[in-house]
Design brief:
Helix 5 links the parallel strand 5 and strand 6. The protein is globular, with a radius of gyration of 21 Å. 38% of the residues lie in helices and 18% in strands. The chain folds into 2 domains: 242 residues, NAD(P)-binding Rossmann-like Domain (Rossmann fold, 3-Layer(aba) Sandwich), CATH 3.40.50; 85 residues, UDP-galactose 4-epimerase, domain 1, CATH 3.90.25. With 359 residues, it is an alpha/beta fold. The strands form 4 sheets. It has an 8-stranded parallel β-sheet, with helices on both faces. Strands 8-11 form a two-stranded parallel sheet. A two-stranded parallel sheet has the order 9-14.
Length: 359
């Protein structure tokens, strides 16, 4: 199979967690013998090219979004951007001849690009990683040419919403199952909950094949240091490469327990869930570990001594003691279960930072 994978930001650039899952999906498809080409925006082109080693990653699409703002482009500039993107996609479709197009997060990009592919009758899968279906029609001048969003996708196409376990908020009981009420507690979680509800409405009201996944914490190679495993492994890798004999990790509450799954297992869950009937499906390990346990695992795979100190500035007064989900619904319907041990996840994340920092 030849897959063209398109989205707004691809590693090493990162805004949130979807980029890691996207990169992992590309790696897994290639490992299975498929040919995958990535087409993304030119955002951060210099920084990305400094680390780019994949000849099948093309950073060529124009992007409306710059620094979390939507520039009000004049009509002539909008036309130029859209026409350039249309030419770019047509060229890659002609050169690569994909069997399927996978759409990842499209925030800041014109939804009319999806229509370009749909008109050619190419099979497509949409992985919705944020609330871009909500705000895109308001900022993308070109989607206003369409009568409704339903025309932007074939009714039979599978749409997978890559949501978050944060939509549940503080758990009333453990483990958290899909029938728990949505109670998001921060703007990020609110946006995920809004997308989840919108996706459910499209499935119920328009008969579209929309599967909603709710992934709990995931980690793995390539993850940014905005996340706990990413920041811990980066600190260790930096100290190792600097020739230090030890590293002191400063964290907040190390007794908080969270449910971690390797991102490569998360991608496997997405693939399995995409074949299911519309509905909500948790993606999680079902086990909760403390940050202290993460540090202990990291000390076992590090090449130097790892010490730990509590930083009072990083303590949260209302930190939820434990979050743990149940993936029994997904497991029962597909047989999916995490295969990668947490120690191997930590080892791979550390190796990823070592390689990245060496370059």
């Amino acid at each position: 199979m030849r897959a063209l994978s398109i989205g707004n930001m691809y590693p090493p650039l990162s805004l949130g967690g979807y980029e890691l899952a996207w990169q992992s999906s590309v790696a897994q498809l290639r490992a299975a013998g498929h040919s995958v080409r990535v087409l993304t925006t030119d955002h951060g082109l210099g920084e990305a090219e400094a680390e780019e080693r994949d000849p099948e990653v093309f950073r060529e699409l124009g992007w409306y979004w710059r620094d979390h703002e939507w520039p009000r482009l004049a009509l002539r500039r909008r036309l130029a951007l859209e026409r350039a993107n249309a030419r770019t996609i047509r060229r890659h479709l002609a050169e690569f001849q994909p069997d399927v197009v996978a759409w990842w997060a499209m925030g800041g990009m014109s939804l009319s690009l999806i229509e370009q592919v749909r008109r050619r009758g190419i099979a497509a899968a949409a992985i919705v990683c944020d609330d871009w279906p909500l705000y895109a029609p308001g900022v993308d001048q070109w989607t206003r040419l369409f009568r409704g969003r339903r025309r932007l996708a074939a009714p039979a196409a599978a749409v997978l919403v890559a949501g978050s376990g944060e939509v549940y908020g503080p758990p009333a009981q453990l483990p958290v199952a899909e029938d728990a009420p949505l109670a998001p507690q921060n703007p990020y979680a609110v946006s995920k909950a809004a997308c989840d509800l919108l996706a459910g409405q499209y499935a119920d009201g328009h008969g579209l094949r929309v599967v909603r996944t709710r992934a709990f914490n995931h980690a793995g190679p390539g993850q940014s240091d905005d996340y706990v495993v990413g920041t811990l492994t980066r600190q260790v890798a930096q100290a190792e490469l600097a020739g230090h004999a030890e590293v002191v990790l400063r964290t907040g509450n190390v007794e908080a327990r969270r449910d971690f799954t390797d991102v490569r297992d998360v991608v496997r869950a997405y693939v399995a869930a995409a074949e299911l009937a519309p509905g909500a499906y948790n993606v999680c390990s079902g086990d909760a570990v403390t940050v202290r346990m993460l540090i202990e695992l990291l000390s076992e795979v590090a090449e130097i001594e790892v010490r730990h100190e509590i930083d009072p500035e990083r303590l949260r007064p209302n930190d939820v003691p434990e979050v743990r989900g149940s993936a029994e619904r997904l497991r029962g319907l597909t047989g999916w279960a995490p295969q990668i041990e947490l120690e191997d996840t930590i080892r791979a994340a550390l190796a990823g930072w070592r390689e990245r920092l060496r370059t």
